Amino acid sequence: MIENAGLWARQDRLSPVSILDLQVVFMYFGFNTNGLAHHAFEDAVSLLSQIGYDGIAITLDHDLIARRDGDFFWRVPLAEIRETVRRSGLRSVVETGARFLLDPWKKHAPNLLDPDLAQRALRQNFYARAVELAQALGSDCVSIWSGAPLASESETVLLARLAEELKKLVDFAGERGVKIAFEPEPGMFVATMAQFERLLDAAPEELGLTIDVGHLFCQNEPIPFYVQRHAQRLVNIHFDDARRGVHEHLLPGDGGIDFEEFFVALRSISYSGGVFAELSRHSVTGAGTAQKVFEFLTKFRG
Predict the structure, then answer these.
(1) Are strands 180-182 and 208-212 parallel, antiparallel or unpaired?
(2) pLDDT tens digits, one per residue of 191-207
(3) Residue 281 DSSP label
(4) Which range of residues forms the domain containing residue 82?
(5) Which residues touch 13 (CB under 8 Å, ≥6 apart)?
(6) Which of 79, 108, 128, 167 is the most buried (most CB within 10 A)?
(7) Is the model's pLDDT at 122 over the cut of 90?
(8) Is 1 contained in some domain?
(9) Do the domain assignments include residue 147?
(10) Is the dihedral of CA 275, 214, 38, 102 positive or negative?
(11) DSSP for residue 155
């Protein structure tokens, strides 16, 4: 594991599936299942464990859950998912970036910005299942984003609506011992770190942060600065390479990110969460991509 990466006690995050309770925990490396979209869930878990990853980011999607009449039901029993992850020994986060689970016609819709209360409730019901899964697994967090506005409304109105919905979600998750981590995403209402900081003026204090290193780089946002500025809020990291001005997740080394600088910044704040490769468009080469990324990440273990 990474030396001098910091440590923390997990007494406040005890879970029935964690093998790390009451032990020292360091920064760890994982892979997002959206990059293994053509693999069965059990196979994805087994593959990542065999490669040597320490964690898995589970994108909650059609393979595990089904939408029916405004609610969601487990295709795979929660106890079975829990046992699969428990056997692997992998730590986890739950990701909510399923593209067409909620609406087969519109990518990532509806979201918490929707002016229709019923549509926002559908998104909240989905998040409730994500929290349920995270609670069962003892996951580090549930990661979410704002989505894009679906109607022409003022920034003030949208910000207030988003903050109100986030409070509902953070309270619901907090009662179950689950952390919510918010990710700024290019093309969405909250796209940049500067916009995230404006959201924090109205959002719940307990809201955590997911940083996608590629998002910051492509939008010319200083990566070490924001890692250090939000050290206490940062609980989840998406790992990919990127080019300036282009929102495209690339294999590490194919873009322009200085990863040595990035990991120095993480070590400087004693970051103890996961660094998860997010390469959804590489699923056609999923196993090979996961192996290649792991070999790249191992250079930064020490």
Answers:
(1) parallel
(2) 999 999 999 999 999 99
(3) G
(4) 11-300
(5) 138, 140, 177
(6) 108
(7) yes
(8) no
(9) yes
(10) positive
(11) H
Domain annotation covers residue 25: yes
Three-state secondary structure call for residue 102 = coil
Contacts of 108 (CB under 8 A, 6+ apart): 97, 99, 147, 148
Q: Domain containing 167 — which CATH number?
A: 3.20.20.150
- Inter-residue contact 229 to 269 (CB < 8 Å): no
What is the count of structural domains for the chain? Answer: 1
Could you tell me the pTM of the whole model?
Answer: 0.91
Q: Which two tokens stand for residue 24?
A: 């020292």
6 within domain boundaries = no
Q: Is the pLDDT of residue 13 over 60?
A: no
Name the nearest CA neighbour of 81 among 135, 158, 155, 13: 135
Mean pLDDT value across the chain: 92
Strands (E), the chain: 28-32, 55-59, 65-68, 71-74, 91-95, 142-144, 180-182, 208-212, 234-239, 241-243, 246-250, 274-277
Q: What is the pLDDT of residues 146-159, one digit of tens each?
A: 999 988 899 999 99
Q: Mean of the pLDDT values across residues 238-250?
A: 97
Q: Residue 237: is its pLDDT beyond 90?
A: yes
The C-alpha R_g of the chain, in whole angstroms, comes to 18
Tokens representing residue 59 in the block: 């994108």
Question: Of the given ranges (13-27, 141-155, 216-230), which has the lowest mean pLDDT?
Answer: 13-27
